[in-house]
Q: What sequence folds into this?
């Protein structure tokens, strides 16, 4: 072992952290300059931890306690425009209140990174987890990663800066409210010096406010150019998938962990595939694959680690030729042709490629209704029994 | 994999107890997962916390429904729910105060010990001592080390003392 490698191994440490604390440690490792936040459950413990880091001098950053999430996003938009590396975090109603500024962040092509422990929306008031808030940001132009463990939250936030600063689009790292945000797990932390070397600051972008080279940002666009500017966001977002792959691969080389843009489990000979996202759905789906196989069903599972841009090629490759698939959604697309938002995208991705694998939309875990491994086994049994082309509201009391 | 379910009331610290034990297991190089049934703790309301410890990565994220160990911090919970529900055939109950249950039971008088040492009826650390004694899932020294990640100064000293006393006084019924 070389001296450098030994030093790096020594600097690595494994801590017991919730996903929220893992997010805070990642922001610290990325050496962010400006954090603007407003507290909301289940996000609050992220900024509590960051406040400690700033207070104890472990992170030299400007922490702005703003009066609302609308202001939180507005403040990081301003700071990012001026070249600061920025971080914020929110959930649920907070993400809703930010909504209009989310479009501005992507339209101005600012490399903001935000953590979102996903939570249900009012009314009625629920502080519990589901993905209604994240799904509502679908068309905002943000790159959106969905992590499935505290370790992946930590790794993804660091990767997010690499992605955001190369694509010039904001990145959201979402994960299960409570079922991850408040779950204590093992997280291996990187040597912060190594992370900072891996994330050099880039101030060579054109959309930078600096006295030497004054520019106007977010100016009025007439019908002759508005369309082109928005098309550029679309092009950048669709093209960002390669950058997500690259960042993940490079991160793997530097720190020994990578995830890909989709994760698969026992797909090789699978007849039936459950597509899931987030920690609880993925973990339980994985366990259910083993149980369904014990019951004689050739089951497999696929996880979307990237929600925007939608990894259409990878999903189509996995689902082409199997007997049927289901997507388990933790959000409802009210009034849409199928109940689950990710199911709708998945069907579209297949049809756009002429693939006609039949599917089932499964809604579960709304407002953190308990999801059990057995529920996911039941999904495999439904697929085997020929349930197709409809929406199943699992765990619903009628 | 060992699965533990904690039953307590908001304010008794069962969520912290599950986190301290998860932290200790992780410090010993194992995998662990600890999470509460309710997010915002409401003082006095029944609270459950779940803990899984394994030598392999843990994927399952459902509530613990077939625990190997059930921890009950407040015997009045036996009146309103069945904490033993789903307990595995060779499962163990760890309870605050002697309680006659049809399963292998370890008990410690956590409330009086907590009142004596802390001057408050916060029983989580005493129950940590009892769980460590009853199950041996982590070493006592590691539990004390893990406690230092959650408490410091005099509060740490008192609670560390309480863990040790509870560990010594935990008995099989």
A:
């Amino acid at each position: 072992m070389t001296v450098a490698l030994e030093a790096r191994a020594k600097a690595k440490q494994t801590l017991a952290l919730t996903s929220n604390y893992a997010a805070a440690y990642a922001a610290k490792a990325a050496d962010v300059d400006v954090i603007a936040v407003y507290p909301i459950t289940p996000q609050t413990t992220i900024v509590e931890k960051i406040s400690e880091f700033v207070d104890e001098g472990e992170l030299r950053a400007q922490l702005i306690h703003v009066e609302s999430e609308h202001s939180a996003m507005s403040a990081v938009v301003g700071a990012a425009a001026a070249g600061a590396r920025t971080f914020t975090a929110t959930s649920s109603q907070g993400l809703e209140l930010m909504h209009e500024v989310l479009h501005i962040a992507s339209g101005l092509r600012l490399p903001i990174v935000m953590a979102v422990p996903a939570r249900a929306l009012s009314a009625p008031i629920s502080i519990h987890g589901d993905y209604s808030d994240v799904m509502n940001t679908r068309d905002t132009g943000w790159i959106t990663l969905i992590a499935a463990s505290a370790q992946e939250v930590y790794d993804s936030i660091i990767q997010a800066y690499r992605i955001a600063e190369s694509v010039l689009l904001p990145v959201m790292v979402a994960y299960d409210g409570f079922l991850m945000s408040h779950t204590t797990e093992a997280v291996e932390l990187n040597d912060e010096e190594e992370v900072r070397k891996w994330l050099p600051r880039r101030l060579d972008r054109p959309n930078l406010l600096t006295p030497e080279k004054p520019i106007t940002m977010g100016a009025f666009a007439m019908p002759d150019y508005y369309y082109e500017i928005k098309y550029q966001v679309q092009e950048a977002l669709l093209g960002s998938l390669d950058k997500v792959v690259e960042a993940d691969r490079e991160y793997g080389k530097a720190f020994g962990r990578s995830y890909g843009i989709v994760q698969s489990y026992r797909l090789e000979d699978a007849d039936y595939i459950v597509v899931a996202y987030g920690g609880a759905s993925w973990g339980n789906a994985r366990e259910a694959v083993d149980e369904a196989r014990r019951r004689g069903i050739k089951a497999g599972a696929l996880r979307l680690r990237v929600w925007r841009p939608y990894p259409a090629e990878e999903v189509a490759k996995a689902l082409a030729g199997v007997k049927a698939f289901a997507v388990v959604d933790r959000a409802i697309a009210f009034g849409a042709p199928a109940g689950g938002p990710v199911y709708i995208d998945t069907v579209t991705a297949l049809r756009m490629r002429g693939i006609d694998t039949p599917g089932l939309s499964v809604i579960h875990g709304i407002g953190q209704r308990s999801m059990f491994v057995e529920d996911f086994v039941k999904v495999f049994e439904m697929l085997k029994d020929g349930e197709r082309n409809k929406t199943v509201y699992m765990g619903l009391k009628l | 994999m060992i699965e533990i379910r904690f039953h307590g009331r908001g304010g008794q610290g069962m969520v912290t107890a599950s986190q301290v034990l998860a932290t200790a297991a992780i410090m010993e190089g194992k995998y662990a997962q600890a999470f509460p049934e309710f997010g915002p703790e409401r003082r006095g309301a029944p609270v459950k916390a779940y803990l899984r410890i394994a030598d392999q990565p843990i994927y399952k994220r459902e509530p613990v429904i077939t625990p190997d160990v059930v921890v009950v911090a407040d015997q009045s919970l036996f009146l309103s729910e069945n904490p033993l529900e789903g307990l595995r055939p060779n499962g163990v109950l760890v309870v605050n105060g002697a309680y006659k249950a049809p399963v292998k039971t370890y008990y410690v008088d956590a409330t009086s010990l907590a009142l004596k040492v802390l001057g408050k009826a916060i029983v989580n650390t005493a129950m940590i001592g009892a769980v460590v004694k009853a199950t041996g899932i982590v070493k006592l020294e590691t539990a004390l080390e893990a406690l230092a990640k959650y408490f410091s100064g005099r509060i740490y000293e008192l609670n560390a003392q309480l863990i040790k006393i509870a560990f010594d006084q935990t008995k099989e019924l």
Remarks:
- Chain A has 13 helices and 15 strands.
- Chain A has two domains: 3-255, 263-393.
